[in-house]
Amino acid sequence: MTQWQTIKTYSEILFERQDQIAKITINRPQVRNAFTPDTIQEMIEAFNYCRDDSSIGIIILTGQGDLAFCSGGDQNVRGNGGYVGKDHIARLNVLDLQHLIRIIPKPVIAMVRGWSVGGGNILQLVCDLTIAADNAKFMQTGPKVGSFDAGYGSAYLARVIGHKRAKEVWFLCHPYTAQEAYQMGWVNKVVPLADVEQETLAWCHEILQKSPTALRFIKAAMNADTDGLAGLQQIAGDSTMLFYESPEAKEGRDAYLQKRQPDFNKFPKFP
Ligand code: S0N
């Protein structure tokens, strides 16, 4: 059995690691891992930790127990302008988390057991890869419960599974089995429930053998195609990060600090 070590103790999530692999688990099984703004805030903090810790190479997002990955926003704390947390402010901060999962420059794998519903299913969608247990079920309920996600939840879903399928998912609000989701390209692999963590870890270990910079640029490039200028900004920032490492960029910095003209002529002009 895999040994996980706690990175930090939270009230609504588990945050653990095993060497270079971090695991963030929504820990509210009593409500099928529905999230509140506080759950989301804890996840944002954990993802940011993973982003900053250079010894973490990959992140697994999952839900506690076999019954649900996540059932979306907790309807008990749904207020008038969003979901209401301990600070009594109504907000939709799950959108911030979706964005963070997209821009974090490390692969994020959703490990889905049981229900993946509503805003929880959008979190699964925005992860880079999804490994589903054979008991997983995928569903959008927005039009049934008076809500919708017209961002990644609709437009990006259409890119992933096709427009006709995405409209079917939202217009009918039917559940789809793991096998049906696999056939639509909604998930990457379906395995027996008992094997899902072992399989997810196997994918993590294989990915960790690859160049982290290459993975970073591939993720950013694919997201830039869907994220417009914000996606371009991400890949541009990655390019700047690499450029800062170069003698050419350092010459510009050093010349400024030494109050002299930079000598850029010594650097090659590649084809
Ligand atoms: C998940 C379902 C299908 C599981 O069914 P199952 O296994 O039969 O269990 P239940 O008996 O139904 O549930 C067990 C207990 O858990 C509670 N519970 C389940 N889900 C929720 C939830 N989301 N909120 C609060 N409680 C939940 C049940 O009430 C039950 O409790 P007890 O034992 O006390 O009766 C099934 O449970 C189900 O269909 N759940 C509701 C799914 C749903 O409609 N989710 C909300 C969808 N909307 C969002 O996620 C909003 C997302 C969002 O934040 C957003 C952000 C940006 C832009 C737009 C949006 C947007 O609004 O969409």
From TrEMBL:
InterPro entries: ClpP/crotonase-like_dom_sf (IPR029045), DHNA-CoA_synthase_MenB (IPR010198), Enoyl-CoA_hyd/isom_CS (IPR018376), Enoyl-CoA_hydra/iso (IPR001753), Enoyl-CoA_hydra_C (IPR014748). Keywords: Lyase, Menaquinone biosynthesis. GO terms for cellular component: cytosol. The keyword Lyase applies. GO terms for biological process: menaquinone biosynthetic process. The keyword Transferase does not apply. One of its GO terms (molecular function) is 1,4-dihydroxy-2-naphthoyl-CoA synthase activity. Hydrogencarbonate binds at Q140, T141, G142. SUPFAM superfamilies: ClpP/crotonase. Substrate binds at residues 32, 71-75, 83, 115-119, 141, 147, 244, 259. Pathway: Quinol/quinone metabolism; 1,4-dihydroxy-2-naphthoate biosynthesis; 1,4-dihydroxy-2-naphthoate from chorismate: step 6/7; Quinol/quinone metabolism; menaquinone biosynthesis. Its EC number is 4.1.3.36. It comes from the Bacteria. The record marks Y83, Y244 as: Important for catalysis. Its cofactor is hydrogencarbonate. It catalyses: 2-succinylbenzoyl-CoA + H(+) = 1,4-dihydroxy-2-naphthoyl-CoA + H2O. Belongs to the enoyl-CoA hydratase/isomerase family. MenB subfamily. Converts o-succinylbenzoyl-CoA (OSB-CoA) to 1,4-dihydroxy-2-naphthoyl-CoA (DHNA-CoA). PANTHER family: 1,4-DIHYDROXY-2-NAPHTHOYL-COA SYNTHASE, PEROXISOMAL (PTHR43113:SF1), NUCLEOSIDE-DIPHOSPHATE-SUGAR EPIMERASE (PTHR43113). This is 1,4-dihydroxy-2-naphthoyl-CoA synthase.
